[in-house]
Every structure is written in structure tokens, then in C-alpha cells.
Amino acid sequence: MNSFSIQEYKYEYEHQQVLDSYKQWLARDLYANLFTDKVDDPAFLQKLSFFQAEGIRHDIGLHAAVTHASIQSAGNLVGQKIQSAAALISSSLDDGFSLMNNRMVEINSNLGVIGQGINSVNQTMQQGNQILAGINKGINQVNRNIMAGMAALSSNIAQAATAIRFSLQTIHGTMQLILDELRIPESQRERRYHIEEGMKYFNKGMQSGDCLYFDDALDEFTKATSIERKDFFSWYYTGMIHLYSQDHLDIDKALSAFDRYTHYADALLQRHELFDEALMMKAECWYLKQDSNKAYQLIKELIPVNNKAALRAMKYLSASTNEDTKKQAVEILETLMQENPYIVMQVLEDYDILSNDHILTYINEYKDKIKKEIAEQLIIANSKMESLKKESFFKNDSLCNEFEDLKSKANKKIGVVDALVLKEKATKMLQKIKNEEPDWIILRLKDLEVSFVDKGDYIVLRQAVLGIKMIEKVSSPYEMTWDQAMQYARNLRKGGFNDWRVPTKEELEFIYKIKDICGINKNDSYFWSSSVPSVSPGYAWNVSFYSGYVGSDYKDGSSYVRCVR
To answer: Model confidence over 284-343: pLDDT tens digits?
Structure first.
């Protein structure tokens, strides 16, 4: 049998591997050495089994020893490995923790740097935001400037377009006029030329009074009517020359020219702008021919719409010998003065109208009416002014002087026009005085509004202060019972101090707060009120002007009284 070398497996195999190897060896050995013809011999087999069993026992023991030694060696090796690994792990952990601490310190340091960086970034962001805000503001301004520029540009373009359109329209109109002009017969262009020349000389004559210009104008208008007999425009100015030029004065020719004008102009589809004036010129011609009735009939329809025609109608009516007809002139004047009283100035310049006694009478009566109204206004203003002057703080000297000057002018003998002017001044003066407030009221109220604004609005406070200021006239000089105080107020009303009464408890409290304004010097006194406690009818409320204390006292007690209205 080949020997089995345990040593070659000593450190390389585990126990199970050793047993498996042995089994393999035993099988090979038996096959190689014992495979004989004696396999059928029982004794041989027994012997063989014995030897085999001994060998197996020996090998098993040896294998067990080897296995035990291997286990101990492996255990020692494993212990060493574990110790080495533990030492390595411990060392590694220590190094790891140390490294970790170092890393944490570095991380903390880096975090600080990062924090500083973040702060720096935030500051930079803030600066950036400010810059962006400035940029946005600049952009907005630029946008506004652009919008304004665009608006201005649009406006300029629109204006330019409008100007271009206007120019084109003007060019078109001019071209149309040229075309129309080309269509007009030569004779009509010549007539228009004479009209233009005639107007030029007529205006020169009216401005200078030189009758030579009227000669030239009349010559031109005559040439125009010779070309076109229905040229009503030329007939109108021909009539004006014969009516107003001394060298050409001819009432009949003037009337004939105006007749032709009205005849031809009346045929127009629309009323010509000079038609009303031509009617008045015709009427003036008939008035100069001493037919005032016909003159009036020509223009009476124009009276409601034309003041100039109304004044001429008054003149024509005033020239009548019939008194009723003359009175019609007064009716026209009355209507005119209701709309504009200063039209009387034109009436006063027309001696023909003033020849009407009815007109003069009406003007004088109107003047007296105006002066009466002025006097009434001055009485009211004077009363208010005197009331203001009694206030020791009133110092509006300019208003006083202005008012005195107005009174002086009103007492003088004045005409109707001066009366109208004076009435306007009196009306304004009265309004100015009514709006005037004494300085002491204005100054005091400014202080009061701060502390006592809850007592009422400004107007109520003002009225209270004004009323209490006047109370000095109706204060009792001595103390009295409550019944006597109530009788004192009744006696005041009978004596002419209308509406005066004993104040209520609340009114006395208000008076206490403004007693300095009211000039109340009895600061240590009590004053009766008209208020009675509901539970004690035998008592009445009174107020101390020293402390503002509100108490009640028997009605037969003694207190002062100060009335209000």
C-alpha cells in the first residue's frame, strides 16, 4: 500500500477534505494491491479487513491529531488576524476620526468663507438690484421720453399731414377758382374789377373824408352797374355815397339806389348780409324827407332783433306829433334797458330822441329809482359798518375810507349813467361789508377750534361768539334770585332787546370756556341758567365762572344773570 501523506494536506485542507482524500486513497490501494484471486478466501478477507481497520484507525487518529493541530493553528492565525484587523480598524478609526475632525474644521472654515461669500453675493445682489432699479428707472424714463417723442412725432406728423391736406385743399380750391374764373365771361371779370376798385376808394373816402375818393368810388360802381344792372352790391354803396358824402349828397338818388338794392337782393335765395342795413338806410332817407311814419314802418320788424334798428325806431316815433306815438318810444326804451341799462348812453347822444318829453321823463324816473336803490343799499351797509366799528379789534381802514367815499358820491347830484355805475359799486360794497369779519373773531376762533371744535362747527361757534360779545349790554349789575333773573330777561325783551333770554346750563358751560373773549370779569361769580333739575323743581342750575363748576341752588338764592339770544 502506498503511504498517504498527511503533511501535504496539513495546512491546506479542512477535516472533511482529509476524510474524502483518505477514502479515495483506500479505494485506489485496494484496487492496485489487493485485487487478486483471493478475494473469495474468507480468511484473507478477514485479515485484510483487520489490517485495513488498523490502518484506518491509525490514519483516523493521525488525521484527528492533524485536524486538531490545524484547528489550533487556524484559531491562532484567526486570532492574530482578528487582533491585527482590530488594531488596524482601531488605528483606522482613530485616523478616520482625526481626519474627520480636521475635515469638519476645514468644512466649518469653508462654511464661514462660504457665508462671507454668500453675504458678499447678497450685497452684490442688492447692489445689482439697485443698479437694476436704476436701470429700470432709466428705462422707464427712456420709455417715457420715447413715448413723448413718439407723441410729439405723431403730433408733428399729424400737423404736417393736416398742413399738407390744407395745402392740397388750398391748391385744389385755388385751381377750382382758376377754373371757375376761366369760365366767367370777360365782362363779369371786368365788373368784379370795378367793384373791387370802388370798395378801395370808398374805404379811403370814409377814412379820410376826402370826397375825391368818393368820386372815384362812384365812378367804379357806376361802371359795374352799367355792365350788370342787377349788381345790388354796387347799388348799396352808390346809395351810401349819396347819403354820406357832402359833395354827392342827394337823398333821392340815395333812396333810388337803396330801392334797387332791396329789389334785387330780395330775389336771392338767402337774405343778403347787408339787407337789414339797407332797410335802415332807406328808412333814414324817408326820415330825412320828413316822413317819419314811413321810416318807422320800414324797420319796425327789426326792432326785436336789432338794437340799432330799435334806437332808430325811437327817433322816428319821437318825431311824431302824436303823443301816443311818442309814448311808444318809451316802451321800446324800457325793453332795451331791461336787457342792458347802459344803452341809455346811446339815447343821451341822440338829440332827436331827447326831444321826446316822455323819454326824458322816463330817464329821470329811472335815475330816481336807481338812486333810491343805492340809498337802501347804503343804509344796510352803513348799519353793518357801524356794527363792525364798535368791535375794538376792527381795523379795516381801507374799507371804511372806501365806504365813506361811496356815501359822499351818492349824496352828489348825478346823472342816470353815474347812478348806474354807483349802484354797481354800492352792491359790491355791501357784499364786501357783509363778508367782513372783525380781526378779533378770526384770531380767537383759530384758538378755539383747537380746544372746542367738538362743541359745534365753525359757523355755530362764530355765531355764539358774536352773540355773547354783545351780552355786555344786557348783563345784570347785581345778584338776584332765579325768578328775578327770568323776569329780568322778560323786561329786556319788552325794552327792545328782542329774542334775549337766560341761557341754558349747556350754554353757560360754553360761555365759561370762552369767557375771556366775552369780556366777563366776574370770574368768582355764579350765573343763573334757565335749566331746572327734573328731580328738584325748587332748584336751578348755575355755573361758576371761576372754576367752571356746575351746581344747583335754591331758586331764592343769589346769582348773577347774563342773557343770550
So the answer is: 999 999 999 999 999 999 999 999 999 999 999 999 999 999 999 999 999 999 999 999
Cα separations (Å) of 231 from 146, 216, 261? 61, 18, 8
CB 245 within 8 A of CB 206: no
Residue 511, C-beta contacts closer than 8 angstroms, at least 6 positions apart: 468, 503, 518, 520, 527, 543, 545, 562, 564
Task: With residue 511 as reference, give the H or E element that holds it.
Answer: helix 505-513
Q: What's the DSSP call for residue 301?
A: G
Taking each helix axis from N to C end, the angle separating 323-339 and 357-389, rounded to the nearest 10 degrees, works out to 30
**Strand, helix or coil at 558?**
coil
Residue 221: Cβ within 10 Å count: 28
The pLDDT value recorded for residue 498 is 73
Among the listed residues 547, 504, 546, the one whose alpha carbon sits nearest the alpha carbon of residue 528? 504
Amino acid at 390: K
Inter-residue contact 318 to 352 (CB < 8 Å): yes
d(C-alpha 462, C-alpha 443), whole Å:
11
Q: DSSP for 239-256?
A: HHHHHH-GGG--HHHHHH
DSSP annotation string for 541-563 = EEEETTT--EEEEETTS-BB-B-
